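Fold this sequence, please.
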Amino acid sequence: MRETPCWPTARSLTGDAMTERLKDKIAIVTGAGQGIGEAIARAYAAEDARVVIAERNEETGREVAASIGGLFLCTDVTVQDDVDGVVAATIAAYGAPHILVNNAGANVFYKPHEMPRSAWARCMALDLEACWAMSEAVLPSMRNAQRGSIINISSGHSFQIIPHTFPYPVAKHGLLGMTRALGIEYAAEGIRVNGIAPGYIDTQIARDYWAEFDDPAAERAKAEALHPPGRIGKPEEVAMTAVFLGSDEAPFINAETIVIDGGRSVLYHD
């Protein structure tokens, strides 16, 4: 069994007692078996939401669900039957979802002329099309209830291009556009659609990337030096923004993507 990180709760982050900011809300979080998705699921549970862990990895998904008293549903978000099934199972177990967090995704990085066509298809299916499929699946119940919050976990790649990371920024630029389009389309029906664009975050994906180099510690240090605070972000720092966007505290934030990168994207470079 893997070691479970000690994620801070709302209490440890704010210094106050748990506020139950998501009490009685039902949330689906995709890709919640590790990293940012896990942190969001744990933060939601700490705020008294009923959380569905929609995760392809059965071992990690079950472990997270069991530890927070949530529901695990083995889900491949690129398979339509799984998408439809997770929403139907959520409704059967808890009721119609109030919150959808589209977190599942993967880094797909190539030089364009070296990219196999299969990599393009995989990136678009997982990092863009699956977000629409999940959103499409929850929209009927959200429209019927005239309320809902869809949160797309995007990336700094939605705004800037880093060489040799093709086609990931193409998908993330598309997700930015989808967030804006859906937010405008359904605003009058009480449905908010927003995004979160994390920069470098200390997740297993980042650690696996650094491990590809001869000196992983040096690569991590390079990443930390890019950021004004001199460090990279923590998954729970992304999670608390997802709590805010999913709560009733953000009723007029819509079609927006919040960047969480310690200021790196606005740092002046000469």
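The beta strands are 26-30, 50-55, 71-74, 99-102, 109-110, 148-153, 166-167, 191-198, 257-260. The first strand starts at residue 26 and ends at 30.
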